[in-house]
Amino acid sequence: MHIDTVTGSITAYCEGCSGSKSTFFWRDVNGDEFGSVSIENKSSISRTFLTYRLYVCAGCKKGALACIQVREEYVEFPGCILKLISFFPSPVRALKLPDSVPLGIVNEFREAEKCLSNQCYRAASGLFRSVLDKTMRDNGYKTSKESLYAQIENAAADGVITTARKIKAHSEIRVLGNDVLHDDWVQIELSEVEASWNYCQRILEDFYDDRPTVLEILKSCGRSPSEGSDNSTD
Hints:
α1 (103-117) packs antiparallel against α2 (121-138), α2 (121-138) runs parallel beside α5 (190-208) and α4 crosses α5. Strands 1, 2, 3, 4, 5, 6 and 7 form a seven-stranded antiparallel β-sheet that branches.
């Protein structure tokens, strides 16, 4: 996210534009403001103010709310801008997924991205682990009571994912998700969940980008993958 201190416009990813980057404006073509409220910023050492200002996407016209720190000496907006504090909704860039990924898995991945964009890093980590778990199930690796660890190991042994990807699936997705689900609460950093996010997308590409070839490999290894499943209720 970035705010232009000259024009007051904000550049951010837009949920209404399918996660594409867009420009948001705080007034219409006639120059009329969409609305704002200002309060004193009591958390600041120096006396500044916070203005909560309505914005609209230039593309899809979806509304948004910005919290902006402004100077004590009131100057007409945007001349008073110090910095952008927050912007809602502020979705992250939506990573591209193969067309053959089941809808339920896609929906879970997108929900994890929403958690990530709203700084709910623990929730995002748990959901990315769930995406990995559902992907293994959809491809025939979850039989009886096999652990997710064993499923990842088997996928690598079958050659569907590489050894390098197997290591990342364990360290960046499974272990981090397990910590969230089973261990005491600890703060998770953005860098940790970003790694989980990116490797989760790559694993989905491994399984679904060239789906016919992967299906042949799975069947030759005695797996029973779902073909064209929806998974929307998982």
